[in-house]
Amino acid sequence: MPRITQEQKKLNRERIVGAAGEGFRLRGIDGIGIDELMKAAGMTHGAFYNHFSSKEDLALEVFARGFTDSLAALDTIRESHPGAARAALDAVVEQYLTAEHRDHPETGCASAALAADAGRHGAAAQAQYQRGLAGYFDTITELVRESAHEAGTEPDPAESREQAVALFCQLVGALVVSRAVAAADPELSEEVLAANRSQLTAN
Predict the structure, then answer these.
(1) pLDDT digits over 163-182, tens only?
(2) Predicted TM-score of the model (pTM)
């Protein structure tokens, strides 16, 4: 058999990480096995170990990649509102708290979909999650400070950080709660999203 090229090996790894990213977000790390993940990636179970030493090793990659992608999306929103930090913050809220995001955790924010898994899977998983949170908190803190400057006030660094942490945690919490009741009570699920959109955007 011909030897696999380094380029193909890299592509295969990306396929595994992509399949795991969707599977773990949708069903949790413990809710899907290697056989099913590899089938979704179009490969055999045995090929898994050419790329990862264990499922936990793969999970750490998924955490890292998930936050990288989410932070890139946050940066895109920020860049699309130059000189308008308050508008950027409102856009983050409006795009995060949607029925589309609620209904498709497999392609959504890793912080909401994988929070419980990070808590269950030990220090290494929590460290990856923490690094992702740090990126969110830093970026949102900068937006809070910029918004205050645009409004003509001098923001206190500690207060800006506190507001950023609270804002992000409210976003994640609202999304998680809305998902928890989406099938049983769609109206309540939408109410959760709408109430938080209203409270978290500028009036």
Answers:
(1) 999 999 999 999 999 999 99
(2) 0.90
